[in-house]
């Protein structure tokens, strides 16, 4: 079993998690203005990606530019990985490849704790990607703890490129944001993606 094999029910039961779908998790997160570079990219790529209508196009033209913008906003203080293997605990099925990983470290050659994970939804199905994302988030929780860099809240996201659903894990509780964000809200998406990497006590 690997991350992509987990359904929402399977990950909940295997890791004895509690699911909370009641919260507007990021209502208080301030939007972050995208750079002129990202504005130009999205203006050009949104119609292109939706016209091509493949997962690869959405990943390359929509998801990757937004995540690269987060790294740019932090002046490359954080790192971004795409399609990397993330073998944390083979006995529990916490292994395989992650669509995207972001790390609160400037090291780009190695994945360094603490990390957050982003899953590209298959067949444009956000719900279908939740199990995979939560499994990768549990792995991130363990990975951070093993490295002695445990953080209280693990962040994750499932996206089609045009739609974004964000999650958090705190201990054994998974909070799935009741709000879904869209590519025409890049300021809010950037604010949320940057939230895990802000200094403690500092708002975006």
Provide structural commentary.
This protein has a single domain, classed as Alpha-Beta Complex (tt1808, chain A), CATH 3.90.1570. The N and C termini lie far apart (37 Å). It has helices at residues 8-14, 36-52, 55-73, 126-146, 186-194, and strands at 18-20, 79-85, 97-103, 115-120, 154-159, 163-170, 173-176, 181-182. It has 204 residues and is an alpha+beta fold. It contains five helices and eight strands; from the N terminus they run H-E-H-H-E-E-E-H-E-E-E-E-H. Helix 4 links the parallel strand 4 and strand 5. 36% of the residues lie in helices and 21% in strands. Helix 2 (36-52) packs antiparallel against helix 3. It is globular, with a radius of gyration of 16 Å. The longest helix has 21 residues, at 126-146. Strands 1, 2, 3, 4, 5, 6, 7 and 8 form an eight-stranded mixed sheet that branches.
